[in-house]
Amino acid sequence: MARNSSSVYVHLPFCDRICPYCDFAVVEFKQERVARYLAALHQELASCPQPAAVSSVYLGGGTPSAHTQSEIASLLAALFAHFGIERGSVECTLEANPSRNASALAGFRAAGVTRLSIGVQSFEDLELLRLGREHSARDAKTFVTAARKAGFANVNIDLIAGVPDQTSASFARTLERAIACESDHVSVYALTIEEGTPYANWFARRPERFPNDDRVADLLEQAESTLEEAGYVRYEISNYAKPGCESVHNLGYWRQQDCVALGMSASGYDDGLRYRNVRGFEAYCDAIERGGSAREDEERLSTQARIGEAAMLALRTREGIRDSDFRDRFGIEARSFFSDAINKCRQAGLLEENPHGVRLSPRGRLLANTACSEFLHPSFLPAPAGLGQTTS
Ligand code: SF4
How many angstroms does the Cα of residue 128 sit away from the middle of ligand 1? Predict the structure, then answer.
Protein backbone atom coordinates (compact mmCIF):
# COMPACT_ATOMS: atom_id res chain seq x y z
CA MET A 1 0.00 0.00 0.00
CA ALA A 2 1.72 3.20 -1.17
CA ARG A 3 1.74 5.99 1.42
CA ASN A 4 0.47 8.51 -1.11
CA SER A 5 -2.51 6.37 -2.07
CA SER A 6 -5.97 7.08 -0.74
CA SER A 7 -8.92 5.03 0.37
CA VAL A 8 -12.55 5.75 -0.52
CA TYR A 9 -15.40 5.50 2.00
CA VAL A 10 -19.04 5.61 0.90
CA HIS A 11 -21.82 5.79 3.48
CA LEU A 12 -25.04 3.91 2.68
CA PRO A 13 -27.31 4.73 5.64
CA PHE A 14 -30.33 2.49 5.13
CA CYS A 15 -31.39 -0.20 7.59
CA ASP A 16 -34.58 -2.27 7.73
CA ARG A 17 -34.88 -1.50 11.44
CA ILE A 18 -32.80 0.69 13.73
CA CYS A 19 -31.06 -1.35 16.44
CA PRO A 20 -31.67 0.07 19.95
CA TYR A 21 -27.96 0.55 20.72
CA CYS A 22 -27.06 2.15 17.39
CA ASP A 23 -25.82 5.72 17.15
CA PHE A 24 -24.63 5.65 13.53
CA ALA A 25 -26.08 7.94 10.90
CA VAL A 26 -28.87 5.64 9.73
CA VAL A 27 -32.36 5.94 8.25
CA GLU A 28 -35.10 3.41 7.76
CA PHE A 29 -35.11 1.71 4.40
CA LYS A 30 -37.75 3.16 2.03
CA GLN A 31 -37.36 2.73 -1.71
CA GLU A 32 -38.13 6.37 -2.58
CA ARG A 33 -35.48 7.53 -0.10
CA VAL A 34 -32.97 5.09 -1.58
CA ALA A 35 -33.50 6.42 -5.09
CA ARG A 36 -33.07 10.01 -3.93
CA TYR A 37 -29.97 9.24 -1.89
CA LEU A 38 -28.23 7.24 -4.60
CA ALA A 39 -28.87 10.03 -7.11
CA ALA A 40 -27.27 12.49 -4.66
CA LEU A 41 -24.31 10.17 -4.09
CA HIS A 42 -23.67 9.86 -7.83
CA GLN A 43 -23.83 13.66 -8.07
CA GLU A 44 -21.40 14.14 -5.17
CA LEU A 45 -19.03 11.62 -6.75
CA ALA A 46 -19.03 13.45 -10.09
CA SER A 47 -17.50 16.56 -8.50
CA CYS A 48 -15.20 14.74 -6.10
CA PRO A 49 -11.40 15.14 -6.43
CA GLN A 50 -9.45 12.23 -7.87
CA PRO A 51 -6.42 11.14 -5.85
CA ALA A 52 -3.37 9.81 -7.70
CA ALA A 53 -4.06 6.25 -6.57
CA VAL A 54 -6.76 4.43 -4.63
CA SER A 55 -5.87 1.46 -2.43
CA SER A 56 -9.31 0.45 -1.11
CA VAL A 57 -13.03 1.11 -1.37
CA TYR A 58 -15.36 0.64 1.60
CA LEU A 59 -19.16 0.66 1.43
CA GLY A 60 -20.24 1.17 5.04
CA GLY A 61 -23.50 2.01 6.73
CA GLY A 62 -26.21 1.40 7.55
CA THR A 63 -26.73 -1.89 5.77
CA PRO A 64 -25.18 -1.72 2.30
CA SER A 65 -26.09 -5.38 1.68
CA ALA A 66 -29.79 -4.45 1.79
CA HIS A 67 -29.37 -2.69 -1.56
CA THR A 68 -30.16 -4.53 -4.76
CA GLN A 69 -27.43 -6.06 -6.81
CA SER A 70 -28.02 -3.50 -9.58
CA GLU A 71 -27.80 -0.53 -7.16
CA ILE A 72 -24.44 -1.77 -5.84
CA ALA A 73 -23.22 -2.61 -9.35
CA SER A 74 -24.12 0.83 -10.66
CA LEU A 75 -22.52 2.58 -7.66
CA LEU A 76 -19.31 0.56 -7.92
CA ALA A 77 -19.12 1.06 -11.69
CA ALA A 78 -19.34 4.83 -11.14
CA LEU A 79 -16.72 4.72 -8.34
CA PHE A 80 -14.32 2.56 -10.35
CA ALA A 81 -14.70 4.79 -13.43
CA HIS A 82 -14.25 8.02 -11.46
CA PHE A 83 -11.17 6.86 -9.55
CA GLY A 84 -9.64 4.83 -12.40
CA ILE A 85 -9.87 1.54 -10.50
CA GLU A 86 -9.76 -1.74 -12.34
CA ARG A 87 -12.41 -4.03 -10.90
CA GLY A 88 -10.82 -6.57 -8.56
CA SER A 89 -7.51 -4.70 -8.36
CA VAL A 90 -8.11 -3.19 -4.89
CA GLU A 91 -9.85 -4.38 -1.73
CA CYS A 92 -13.52 -3.46 -1.94
CA THR A 93 -15.49 -4.13 1.26
CA LEU A 94 -19.26 -4.22 1.65
CA GLU A 95 -20.86 -4.22 5.11
CA ALA A 96 -23.57 -6.83 5.36
CA ASN A 97 -26.38 -7.77 7.70
CA PRO A 98 -27.25 -11.47 7.85
CA SER A 99 -30.99 -10.78 8.10
CA ARG A 100 -31.59 -10.91 4.34
CA ASN A 101 -30.27 -10.77 0.77
CA ALA A 102 -27.90 -13.76 0.94
CA SER A 103 -29.01 -14.55 -2.61
CA ALA A 104 -27.54 -11.24 -3.82
CA LEU A 105 -24.00 -12.02 -2.61
CA ALA A 106 -22.80 -13.56 -5.89
CA GLY A 107 -24.07 -10.47 -7.70
CA PHE A 108 -22.22 -8.15 -5.30
CA ARG A 109 -19.04 -10.10 -5.96
CA ALA A 110 -19.55 -9.91 -9.72
CA ALA A 111 -19.98 -6.14 -9.32
CA GLY A 112 -16.51 -5.85 -7.75
CA VAL A 113 -16.96 -6.43 -4.01
CA THR A 114 -13.95 -8.46 -2.80
CA ARG A 115 -14.52 -8.51 0.96
CA LEU A 116 -17.61 -8.85 3.14
CA SER A 117 -17.88 -7.51 6.68
CA ILE A 118 -20.84 -9.25 8.30
CA GLY A 119 -22.56 -7.80 11.38
CA VAL A 120 -23.12 -11.07 13.24
CA GLN A 121 -22.66 -9.50 16.73
CA SER A 122 -23.42 -12.76 18.59
CA PHE A 123 -24.12 -16.42 17.85
CA GLU A 124 -26.55 -16.61 20.80
CA ASP A 125 -30.22 -16.10 19.92
CA LEU A 126 -31.11 -14.55 23.28
CA GLU A 127 -28.31 -12.01 22.96
CA LEU A 128 -29.39 -11.18 19.40
CA LEU A 129 -32.88 -10.58 20.74
CA ARG A 130 -31.56 -8.24 23.43
CA LEU A 131 -29.56 -6.40 20.79
CA GLY A 132 -32.75 -5.93 18.77
CA ARG A 133 -31.22 -7.70 15.80
CA GLU A 134 -33.54 -9.14 13.18
CA HIS A 135 -31.47 -12.25 12.47
CA SER A 136 -30.90 -15.47 14.39
CA ALA A 137 -27.63 -17.30 15.00
CA ARG A 138 -28.66 -19.78 12.32
CA ASP A 139 -29.26 -16.92 9.82
CA ALA A 140 -25.76 -15.65 10.54
CA LYS A 141 -24.19 -19.05 9.94
CA THR A 142 -26.20 -19.51 6.74
CA PHE A 143 -25.13 -16.05 5.54
CA VAL A 144 -21.43 -16.75 6.13
CA THR A 145 -21.78 -20.07 4.27
CA ALA A 146 -23.53 -18.24 1.41
CA ALA A 147 -20.64 -15.74 1.30
CA ARG A 148 -18.20 -18.61 0.85
CA LYS A 149 -20.39 -20.21 -1.80
CA ALA A 150 -20.49 -16.88 -3.63
CA GLY A 151 -16.69 -17.05 -3.78
CA PHE A 152 -15.67 -14.45 -1.18
CA ALA A 153 -12.17 -15.28 0.01
CA ASN A 154 -12.07 -12.56 2.64
CA VAL A 155 -14.91 -12.49 5.17
CA ASN A 156 -15.04 -10.54 8.41
CA ILE A 157 -17.41 -11.19 11.29
CA ASP A 158 -18.25 -8.37 13.72
CA LEU A 159 -18.90 -9.40 17.33
CA ILE A 160 -19.97 -7.41 20.40
CA ALA A 161 -18.56 -7.89 23.90
CA GLY A 162 -20.68 -6.57 26.76
CA VAL A 163 -24.18 -7.50 25.56
CA PRO A 164 -26.68 -7.35 28.46
CA ASP A 165 -26.56 -10.59 30.50
CA GLN A 166 -23.66 -11.91 28.42
CA THR A 167 -21.51 -14.39 30.32
CA SER A 168 -18.03 -15.69 29.61
CA ALA A 169 -19.65 -19.05 28.74
CA SER A 170 -22.05 -17.50 26.20
CA PHE A 171 -19.24 -15.38 24.74
CA ALA A 172 -17.05 -18.49 24.48
CA ARG A 173 -19.77 -20.17 22.40
CA THR A 174 -19.97 -17.13 20.11
CA LEU A 175 -16.19 -17.06 19.63
CA GLU A 176 -16.12 -20.81 18.94
CA ARG A 177 -18.82 -20.44 16.28
CA ALA A 178 -17.01 -17.51 14.66
CA ILE A 179 -13.90 -19.68 14.46
CA ALA A 180 -15.90 -22.68 13.20
CA CYS A 181 -17.25 -20.48 10.35
CA GLU A 182 -13.60 -20.11 9.28
CA SER A 183 -13.95 -16.36 9.02
CA ASP A 184 -10.71 -14.74 7.86
CA HIS A 185 -11.11 -11.72 10.09
CA VAL A 186 -12.96 -11.06 13.35
CA SER A 187 -13.67 -7.62 14.82
CA VAL A 188 -14.62 -7.52 18.51
CA TYR A 189 -16.10 -4.27 19.77
CA ALA A 190 -17.10 -3.43 23.32
CA LEU A 191 -20.71 -2.31 23.49
CA THR A 192 -20.92 1.41 24.14
CA ILE A 193 -24.04 3.02 25.56
CA GLU A 194 -24.73 6.03 23.37
CA GLU A 195 -26.74 8.92 24.73
CA GLY A 196 -30.22 9.26 23.26
CA THR A 197 -30.55 5.61 22.23
CA PRO A 198 -33.13 3.18 23.69
CA TYR A 199 -30.20 1.36 25.25
CA ALA A 200 -29.28 4.47 27.25
CA ASN A 201 -32.79 4.38 28.79
CA TRP A 202 -32.49 0.69 29.52
CA PHE A 203 -29.07 1.19 31.09
CA ALA A 204 -30.44 4.03 33.26
CA ARG A 205 -33.24 1.75 34.54
CA ARG A 206 -31.40 -1.57 34.82
CA PRO A 207 -27.62 -1.03 34.93
CA GLU A 208 -27.14 -4.44 36.56
CA ARG A 209 -28.10 -6.09 33.26
CA PHE A 210 -25.00 -4.62 31.59
CA PRO A 211 -21.52 -6.07 32.18
CA ASN A 212 -19.39 -3.45 33.95
CA ASP A 213 -16.01 -2.24 32.64
CA ASP A 214 -14.09 -4.99 34.43
CA ARG A 215 -16.35 -7.67 33.03
CA VAL A 216 -16.04 -6.23 29.53
CA ALA A 217 -12.24 -6.13 29.92
CA ASP A 218 -12.37 -9.83 30.89
CA LEU A 219 -14.43 -10.60 27.80
CA LEU A 220 -11.98 -8.74 25.58
CA GLU A 221 -9.08 -10.69 27.09
CA GLN A 222 -11.07 -13.88 26.51
CA ALA A 223 -11.48 -12.89 22.84
CA GLU A 224 -7.73 -12.30 22.54
CA SER A 225 -6.70 -15.65 24.02
CA THR A 226 -9.36 -17.66 22.14
CA LEU A 227 -8.81 -16.06 18.76
CA GLU A 228 -5.00 -16.05 18.99
CA GLU A 229 -5.05 -19.72 19.91
CA ALA A 230 -7.10 -20.30 16.75
CA GLY A 231 -4.45 -18.62 14.58
CA TYR A 232 -5.76 -15.05 14.39
CA VAL A 233 -3.40 -12.17 14.96
CA ARG A 234 -4.63 -9.17 16.94
CA TYR A 235 -3.29 -6.54 14.55
CA GLU A 236 -5.33 -3.70 16.06
CA ILE A 237 -7.11 -3.25 19.38
CA SER A 238 -10.47 -4.50 18.05
CA ASN A 239 -9.35 -6.48 15.01
CA TYR A 240 -8.06 -9.99 14.48
CA ALA A 241 -7.01 -11.51 11.16
CA LYS A 242 -5.59 -14.69 9.76
CA PRO A 243 -2.14 -13.83 8.37
CA GLY A 244 -2.53 -11.90 5.12
CA CYS A 245 -6.23 -11.12 5.72
CA GLU A 246 -5.81 -7.75 7.48
CA SER A 247 -8.15 -5.06 6.18
CA VAL A 248 -6.29 -2.80 3.75
CA HIS A 249 -8.89 -0.09 4.27
CA ASN A 250 -8.62 -0.07 8.05
CA LEU A 251 -4.82 -0.25 7.96
CA GLY A 252 -4.88 2.85 5.77
CA TYR A 253 -6.93 4.66 8.40
CA TRP A 254 -4.59 3.68 11.25
CA ARG A 255 -1.63 4.75 9.13
CA GLN A 256 -3.29 8.14 8.65
CA GLN A 257 -3.55 7.80 4.90
CA ASP A 258 -5.86 10.03 2.90
CA CYS A 259 -9.48 8.99 2.63
CA VAL A 260 -12.07 10.36 0.22
CA ALA A 261 -15.46 10.34 1.96
CA LEU A 262 -18.85 10.35 0.23
CA GLY A 263 -22.36 10.33 1.64
CA MET A 264 -24.10 11.69 4.72
CA SER A 265 -21.95 11.86 7.87
CA ALA A 266 -18.92 10.45 6.02
CA SER A 267 -15.60 11.80 7.25
CA GLY A 268 -12.47 12.04 5.19
CA TYR A 269 -8.85 13.09 5.39
CA ASP A 270 -6.83 14.95 2.80
CA ASP A 271 -3.20 15.66 3.61
CA GLY A 272 -3.84 17.10 7.08
CA LEU A 273 -7.39 18.31 6.41
CA ARG A 274 -10.10 16.43 8.31
CA TYR A 275 -13.63 16.93 7.04
CA ARG A 276 -17.10 15.59 7.62
CA ASN A 277 -20.31 15.70 5.61
CA VAL A 278 -23.61 16.71 7.22
CA ARG A 279 -25.16 13.92 9.26
CA GLY A 280 -28.86 14.21 8.36
CA PHE A 281 -30.48 12.54 5.35
CA GLU A 282 -32.53 15.59 4.30
CA ALA A 283 -29.65 18.01 4.86
CA TYR A 284 -27.31 15.87 2.78
CA CYS A 285 -29.73 15.36 -0.12
CA ASP A 286 -30.81 19.04 -0.10
CA ALA A 287 -27.21 20.30 -0.17
CA ILE A 288 -26.26 18.10 -3.10
CA GLU A 289 -29.51 18.71 -5.01
CA ARG A 290 -28.93 22.46 -4.72
CA GLY A 291 -25.61 21.91 -6.45
CA GLY A 292 -23.61 22.65 -3.30
CA SER A 293 -21.27 20.75 -1.05
CA ALA A 294 -22.43 18.47 1.76
CA ARG A 295 -19.32 19.25 3.77
CA GLU A 296 -20.15 20.54 7.23
CA ASP A 297 -16.91 20.53 9.23
CA GLU A 298 -13.34 21.04 8.21
CA GLU A 299 -10.26 21.14 10.38
CA ARG A 300 -6.74 21.78 9.14
CA LEU A 301 -4.48 19.94 11.58
CA SER A 302 -1.26 21.59 12.67
CA THR A 303 1.86 19.50 12.10
CA GLN A 304 2.04 18.75 15.79
CA ALA A 305 -1.59 17.65 15.85
CA ARG A 306 -0.90 15.40 12.85
CA ILE A 307 2.01 13.82 14.63
CA GLY A 308 -0.05 13.33 17.80
CA GLU A 309 -2.88 11.77 15.84
CA ALA A 310 -0.46 9.58 13.88
CA ALA A 311 0.98 8.31 17.18
CA MET A 312 -2.46 7.69 18.68
CA LEU A 313 -3.56 5.72 15.59
CA ALA A 314 -0.28 3.79 15.36
CA LEU A 315 -0.52 2.80 19.01
CA ARG A 316 -3.81 1.04 18.29
CA THR A 317 -1.97 -1.33 15.97
CA ARG A 318 0.26 -4.29 16.74
CA GLU A 319 3.21 -2.49 15.11
CA GLY A 320 2.84 0.52 17.36
CA ILE A 321 4.94 3.63 16.81
CA ARG A 322 7.85 2.74 14.55
CA ASP A 323 10.88 5.02 14.73
CA SER A 324 11.62 4.69 11.00
CA ASP A 325 8.04 5.53 10.03
CA PHE A 326 7.98 8.78 12.03
CA ARG A 327 11.43 9.69 10.69
CA ASP A 328 10.23 9.19 7.08
CA ARG A 329 6.90 10.91 7.49
CA PHE A 330 7.69 13.79 9.82
CA GLY A 331 11.49 13.96 10.12
CA ILE A 332 11.34 13.46 13.88
CA GLU A 333 12.69 11.04 16.44
CA ALA A 334 9.42 9.78 17.90
CA ARG A 335 10.97 8.57 21.13
CA SER A 336 12.38 12.02 21.88
CA PHE A 337 9.31 13.86 20.68
CA PHE A 338 7.03 11.77 22.90
CA SER A 339 9.50 11.17 25.73
CA ASP A 340 7.12 12.50 28.44
CA ALA A 341 4.18 10.42 27.24
CA ILE A 342 6.38 7.35 26.79
CA ASN A 343 7.85 7.63 30.29
CA LYS A 344 4.45 8.14 31.87
CA CYS A 345 2.86 5.20 30.03
CA ARG A 346 5.87 2.94 30.58
CA GLN A 347 5.82 3.60 34.30
CA ALA A 348 2.11 2.72 34.36
CA GLY A 349 2.90 -0.54 32.54
CA LEU A 350 1.00 0.51 29.41
CA LEU A 351 3.88 0.49 26.93
CA GLU A 352 6.72 -1.76 25.93
CA GLU A 353 9.79 -0.69 23.93
CA ASN A 354 11.58 -2.74 21.29
CA PRO A 355 14.47 -2.00 18.91
CA HIS A 356 12.02 -0.58 16.32
CA GLY A 357 9.83 1.63 18.50
CA VAL A 358 7.14 1.39 21.16
CA ARG A 359 3.81 -0.36 21.35
CA LEU A 360 1.05 -1.04 23.85
CA SER A 361 1.65 -3.75 26.44
CA PRO A 362 -1.15 -6.27 27.22
CA ARG A 363 -2.27 -3.92 30.04
CA GLY A 364 -2.01 -0.98 27.64
CA ARG A 365 -4.36 -2.72 25.20
CA LEU A 366 -6.98 -2.86 27.97
CA LEU A 367 -6.44 0.83 28.74
CA ALA A 368 -5.78 1.92 25.18
CA ASN A 369 -7.78 5.14 25.38
CA THR A 370 -5.81 6.30 28.42
CA ALA A 371 -2.48 5.54 26.77
CA CYS A 372 -3.43 7.01 23.39
CA SER A 373 -4.68 10.26 24.88
CA GLU A 374 -1.18 10.91 26.31
CA PHE A 375 0.10 11.00 22.72
CA LEU A 376 -2.79 12.69 21.00
CA HIS A 377 -2.17 16.24 22.16
CA PRO A 378 1.58 16.81 22.14
CA SER A 379 1.17 20.54 21.54
CA PHE A 380 2.66 21.27 24.96
CA LEU A 381 5.93 19.96 23.58
CA PRO A 382 8.37 22.29 21.84
CA ALA A 383 8.45 21.82 18.08
CA PRO A 384 11.66 20.06 17.02
CA ALA A 385 14.09 22.03 14.87
CA GLY A 386 13.01 22.24 11.26
CA LEU A 387 9.43 21.28 11.96
CA GLY A 388 6.76 23.64 10.63
CA GLN A 389 3.79 24.49 12.79
CA THR A 390 1.21 23.85 10.08
CA THR A 391 1.10 22.32 6.67
CA SER A 392 -1.45 24.64 5.13
S1 SF4 B 1 -27.88 -2.79 11.41
FE2 SF4 B 1 -26.00 -1.77 12.11
S3 SF4 B 1 -26.11 0.31 11.25
FE4 SF4 B 1 -28.19 -0.60 11.09
S5 SF4 B 1 -29.22 0.10 12.93
FE6 SF4 B 1 -28.35 -1.90 13.41
S7 SF4 B 1 -26.32 -1.45 14.29
FE8 SF4 B 1 -27.05 0.42 13.28
Answer: 13
